[in-house]
Each structure stands twice: as structure tokens, then as C-alpha cells.
Specification:
InterPro entries: CMP_dCMP_dom (IPR002125), Cytidine_deaminase-like (IPR016193). By secondary structure, the chain is α+β, with helices and mostly antiparallel strands. It contains seven helices and four strands; from the N terminus they run αββαααβαβαα.
Length: about 140
């Protein structure tokens, strides 16, 4: 980790504080180009937006997919206050971002939060393969 990485990571932590001050969960992220110039910053807004997907990492991945060509995206670095969740990690991968630098790991975050009891949705499948493959086959 370079001094520049630390500075940008501290900025992401500051954005997390700003999210919390705004009544949202304390997560913040920014996306920097290959030279370290900040392209865009985001805060968690799941509560104020009433949108469970309003994570800063997801917002940045969407922005990058919309605004950057794949080569430019691959040269970016996302700095984020916490390790991206599964939803955000998938979006980061699909946006072809080059690197993610995070402050807190998921394990570290878990020690700072009260335990959560979540029941997962029941998944039934796969099913109807022959029918489901028709719109997909040949697309990729």
C-alpha cells in the first residue's frame, strides 16, 4: 500500500462518516483513475433513498460501467471503507474495475455489529433447462 493509497482510503473512510452523519449506514467509496485522480465519490444511502441496493460500491460500479470504456475501467482503483459485499463484488467484476482497496474486512466489520439473524430465501432449481436455454444459447 502506497502513501497515495492511504490518503484515498482515508477519504473513503471520511465518506463513511458523512454517510452516518446523514442517517445512513457508515460506508463510503471513491473511484480513482490510473494517476490517482478521484473520478467519483459515493456514500451509502440505503435509508435516505429507501433502496436496499444503494451501497456506494454498487453505485460506483454502475457509474463506471456506464461512463468508462473497459480499458479505462480496468485501470481504476476503488477505495472503500469496508470490503464489498457479494452484491457489490459482482457489480465490480462486471464493471471490469481493476483494483479494490478496502479498510475493514467483512470479518472485522462483523465484530463491530450486533449479530443479525437472517433467514435466506429458499432457492428451488435448476428447472426447465431445455426451455430456459433457448434465449441464452448463442448469446455469449
Amino acid at each position: 500500500m502506497t502513501n497515495e493509497d492511504e490518503l484515498l482510503l482515508r477519504r473513503a473512510i471520511g465518506l463513511a462518516g458523512s454517510a452516518r452523519e446523514g442517517g445512513n449506514p457508515p460506508f463510503g467509496s471513491l473511484l480513482a483513475d490510473a494517476e490517482g485522480k478521484v473520478l467519483v465519490e459515493e456514500r451509502n444511502t440505503v435509508l435516505t433513498d429507501g433502496d436496499i441496493t444503494a451501497h456506494p460500491e454498487l453505485k460506483l460500479a454502475r457509474w463506471a460501467a456506464r461512463e468508462l470504456d473497459p480499458e479505462t475501467a480496468a485501470a481504476t482503483t476503488m477505495y472503500t471503507s469496508c470490503q464489498p459485499c457479494g452484491m457489490c463484488a459482482g457489480a465490480i467484476e462486471r464493471a471490469h474495475l481493476g483494483r479494490v482497496v478496502f479498510a475493514l474486512s467483512t470479518e472485522q466489520l462483523t465484530t463491530l455489529k450486533p449479530p443479525v439473524t437472517v433467514t435466506g430465501a429458499r432457492l428451488d432449481g435448476p428447472a426447465l433447462f431445455e426451455e430456459a436455454r433457448v434465449p441464452v444459447e448463442g448469446y455469449y
